[in-house]
Amino acid sequence: MEIKKYLSVLAVGLAILLPSSCQKGFLDQTDSSNPTRFVLFNKPADGIALVNAIYDTYQNADLLKKSLWYYANFQSHDFFNWGNDRFYNTYAIPSTFGGIQVFWQRAYIGIARANSAIVIIAQMKENGVLTEALADRLTGEIYFLRGMTYYYLAASFGGVPLELTTGANDGLRPKSTQDEVFAQVEQDLIVAAGLLPWKEGYDPTDLGRATKGAALSYLGAAQMWLKKYDLALATFNQVTGKYTLIPKFIDIHEADKENNAESIFEVQFVVAGTQSWGASNEVAWIGSFGMPEEVSNFGYDYGNKGLYDGFQTGDQRKAATIIGPGDINPSPGIIARGGIKSYALVKAGFASTDPVVKLKYTGSDGNIINTCGTIAKPWIGTDLTIPRSGYYNEKMWRDPTLNGNSEDGTIFGAQNQVLVRYGEVLLNKAECQIRTGNVAGGLATMKLVRDRAFGGTAPAVYMSEGKVVADPLQMVYHEYRHELSGEYSTFYNLRRAGVATSFIKEVYNIDIPAGHELYPIPQIEIGLNPNLTQNAGY
């Protein structure tokens, strides 16, 4: 885990080298000769920068895409990997996989930063450097970020070591149980919720920072992991009314609608103003990896036709979630730009003198293609020994300025990544209502989400995968999938409910090997910590 090294540096708030090919430094330092916290943290901006460094943990594509997104979507079997990480397709993730190593390492760097910052912010408050209001808010942000990080660690790996202090351990703790970790998440988020303002309590220059609503949303979810459904319901009720479902599902992930009225917490990439996450604004390849190779030279993740076919007739979420052969990209931003036919690779392909290439970029009407391939000629990439399905994640294909083409330099995009939004909170609330005996209330809450999905009023009969679903909890599980696939939550929510393996078996007739709902503990960390044991099944 290398926690000892991280803590010794963080005790005085100095920069740590981050394990990322796309990162820049996180704090600009001018005095490197034996600095102390009293030298470094003598004005309010220093305290803000210290907390920003914890946010910076999440400005990383390997953590977000190759760990959280892969888990939420490859584990659900709704999406597959085509590149070097195809082991996800068969639930054979090796303990040496670099993505989970980066996840683990960055998570504990963020936790170490948080543990250091708790002490330093308290001292700055005592010394009068920070006002009580600013110190309390920053402390709330610290506890939120530490709680959220442990949330994802426990949800992904099960039990993990709990590091809660600075300078008092050597990073060689054994794993706490999954329930013990979520109990700590609950404690951290209760503290955070008590200190943080609602989103309207922030200045516009602070847009994107942790809020009371974000803390309560993760708190309720943590309480669900602990099977405290009554407490979780009370927590979600505090969020109700503070956010709204935006009218059109297609708009949720539009590049020009970041931090909208439905968004509760999203990772900020290029941030305006002075409150950027870390010392520099970041960009990432998250979007281009999900676009077809025919428009991006990538196409490393692609969709399962079963997801495409599983939506109920009339569900507008289908077009906004997964795009297939013959489909126009429905993104308003991409349509305004001219559609798929505006992409550089599409133009070049249609102009090609090679008839095979030209055919790939010719629409069914004989003109330059403006759809995601055609039914007769789906876009399945160039490696026909391992063809893709022709279906792709529409939620990640939204930034109209991102061609994803290595030749024109637009591989990297700056679009924020939404980790939790009000639509998910409502579905979580519906599950809690049903589990605590209020079935009618749970169905009514779920109907709010479904009515939006159908553009007005959802059908009275619930259908998924072409079958009628009558059991209320099963409806919620299918709603998690149809509402949240292609985002950061689906498999997490199914595992939390205890139905991940049975659900994937029902929907896709795929058996998840015993123990492989969880990630393996990274082998490097086991080598560094003799008290760390591998998860069962690996």
Report what the structure shows.
The structure is a single chain. The protein folds into two domains: 3-276 and 519-528, Alpha Horseshoe (Serine Threonine Protein Phosphatase 5, Tetratricopeptide repeat); 288-412, no CATH class. The protein has 21 helices and eight strands. The chain has helices at residues 3-10, 37-40, 44-55, 61-74, 98-126, 132-157, 178-195, 212-225, 229-239, 293-296, 305-310, 317-321, 332-337, 344-350, 355-360, 422-435, 439-453, 472-484, 490-496, 500-508, 523-528, and strands at 79-81, 263-267, 301-303, 322-323, 392-393, 417-421, 463-464, 467-468. Strands 1-3 form a two-stranded antiparallel sheet. It has a two-stranded antiparallel ribbon with strand order 2-6. Strand 7 and strand 8 form a beta hairpin. Helix 3 (44-55) runs parallel beside helix 6 (132-157), helix 6 runs parallel beside helix 8 (212-225) and helix 18 runs antiparallel to helix 19 (490-496). The longest helix is centred in the N-terminal third of the chain and has 29 residues, at 98-126. 51% of the residues are buried.
